[in-house]
UniProtKB/TrEMBL annotation, chain B:
This is 4Fe-4S dicluster protein. It comes from the Bacteria. InterPro entries: 4Fe4S_Fe-S-bd (IPR017896), 4Fe4S_Fe_S_CS (IPR017900), HdrC_iron-sulfur_subunit (IPR051460), Helical_ferredxn (IPR009051). The keyword Iron-sulfur applies. SUPFAM superfamilies: alpha-helical ferredoxin. Signal peptide: none annotated. PANTHER family: HETERODISULFIDE REDUCTASE RELATED PROTEIN, IRON-SULFUR-BINDING OXIDOREDUCTASE FADF-RELATED-RELATED. Residues 69-98 form the 4Fe-4S ferredoxin-type domain. GO terms for molecular function: iron-sulfur cluster binding; metal ion binding. PROSITE patterns: 4FE4S_FER_1 (PS00198), 4FE4S_FER_2 (PS51379). GO terms for cellular component: plasma membrane.
Amino acid sequence: MEALLHRKIFRKNPVLGYMHMSLAFGWFLLIVVGHLETMIAEHSLFVPFHKAVFFRYYEGFDEFFLSGLFSFLMDFLLLFVLSGLMFAIVKRFRKKLFGLRRTTHLKSGDKIALTSLWLIFPLRLLAESTSAAVYHNGGFLTSGVGAAIDFIGNPAIFYYPLWMAYSLSLGFFFVALPNSRYMHIPTEVVFIFLRVAGIRLKKQNDSYTDVQVFSCSRCGICLDKCQLSVAGIDDSQSVYLLKNIRNKNLSDEKLFNCLMCGRCQVDCPVGIETIELRTVQRIESTREYNSSYDYLIQEVATKADVVYFAGCMTHLTPRVISSMKKIFATAEEDVWFMDEVKAPCCGRPLMLAGQYEAARKLIENNSRMILDSGAHTLVVSCPICYKVFKEDYKLPDVEVVFHAQYIYDLIHSGKLSVDTSNQRMVYHDPCELGRGMGMYETPRKLLGRIGEVVHMKDEKEYAFCCGGSLGNLKISEDKRKLLRDQALVTYEGFSPDILVTACPKCKKTFAAGRKLKVFDLAEIVAGAICVDSLSKEKEILEKQEADCYAVEGL
Amino acid sequence: MSQFDFLQPKSRQIEIEQFDDRILTYVLEREQSFLTCISCGGCTATCSAGNLTSFNVRKIGLSLRRGNINDLSDEVQKCMFCGKCTLVCPRDINIRNVVLLIKKGIAQLETEKTL
Ligand code: SF4
Ligand code: SF4
Ligand code: SF4
Ligand code: SF4
Ligand code: SF4
């Protein structure tokens, strides 16, 4: 049912939704109702398929049970489909009217299929109308048009040619179908079925990837969402990725020219896993040159309750690290800062590059360290790390917590108290945290305790990418700046006091941009810690100092 | 006098006849930003992999320019793709792509002996 109705398109763009529904659902009903009608007319449960489709051709002028009602219904459905078709034709030539900036390019197979699809229903209308004029068996629409044909000339002359043309266009459509975008009609049904059955993509090409690839209808909705076009990149978006996989001519330049931001996945009406599909292709493409990292050695772990892994990116934003340290100290947590001096990367950037086997090596090394520490909690302050720790590390008895959640819990349990201010903040959802991990509310709740978080149109799953994404290995820095400015200009429109994010990479990217001041939420919290709790921190520091003196015998 | 020749060490010599620029051309065709590298070493200083082992990204650029494919293929394996290098690079060079291209280029050389 979902394949025919596509409620997702409706929500996003009602006109487009109506177009798809009237074409797909209308046609489906035409077939079903037509079949019923034939069954009743023939008094038989089994009627040959062609008889149902070309019923008006065979029917002649017999009256049968409910024939009037059926004529009306069939005409109504035909009108329904035709109205959708009209929208579709207008859309092809006037895409702006539909709020679409871009529509996909067609190849010749598509053009044949598209033309025959466009012709099927008008021809059906004309053919059925001539029948109506000859046999007087039409409903409100076909009789009307039939009368008009009758007026122009003798309907009997048009009768055979029109039915012939109608059946030809139908034939053409089904012949062109496997080689065109309309292949999604049969494939999508299979796809939705498999998805509901709980089948998921694995890390390699298999028949399920094929099903997804062929389910894409090339509607171009993903194209419209993709920020890359702001930077003039118009050939690597999901719809083209899928097309290139189908045609087996995917180049590395296109495969790796994607931010992996997930904006396209949110609105895909078919629910194609664009990111995962691309990841699978990247894994396949780089399979032969995975690194072994045999230089990694097992460092000694320190025992602690909590392990803090800052990650490569956080190391380039030292203020985030010092804020986290301040928070840990104030809350008197027993923390081991695992990668304070050195540690391998978390493995997520390798995964984004498709180097899955290589990433596993880093994951094994890090996992052993974390487990050796005996900690019950692992805190990370970078969403890129968070995603890989949560999804790909096997850490029994260790809870992986993102710093936003961790800090929120500290405040909630009274270990940390913060002052409020009347700062207006815009919160930028990092892709890896938001669309990647589905965490939208926790950072907002946390920031809401300190200041006011401004609501925006493009937030949560519709948030922009900062442009700095590690997922894209091809884009130039200049083009990244265009993406960054698209987000920044939008945020500046809300004239906030500051911009807050939860990703060190976003922070770095935005900080290099225009004048808006950017902070990580850890910095905001560290800056808002109450003086009460601060004095606690001071006590600890003094105690530590005293300990030092004691050790040195002073 | 020949002892004072500054071209004495092997590492400073390039044999023009044997100069293998296949990987270099492969990379430059696909990542022009690499042309502007000034060998400042900023990338090496921040490198996550360089922190753990004797790995020097800047030297990868050097080996690449010198056509030292044997050195390259071992060295380039050590990169972790973390992306810190690009963030500190004063010339905005897309170093991860350079590394990816070298890896791909060498793999293709090995399998097909052509590029
Ligand atoms: S991937 Fe989804 S949104 Fe993009 S063209 Fe295909 S069906 Fe449409
Ligand atoms: S993941 Fe982002 S960058 Fe890649 S195609 Fe989708 S919208 Fe575009
Ligand atoms: S840096 Fe942040 S916003 Fe940008 S792509 Fe990465 S997670 Fe998304
Ligand atoms: S930081 Fe950039 S310019 Fe400096 S050596 Fe590295 S790549 Fe070259
Ligand atoms: S991406 Fe590779 S070369 Fe660059 S800093 Fe990370 S490990 Fe070093």
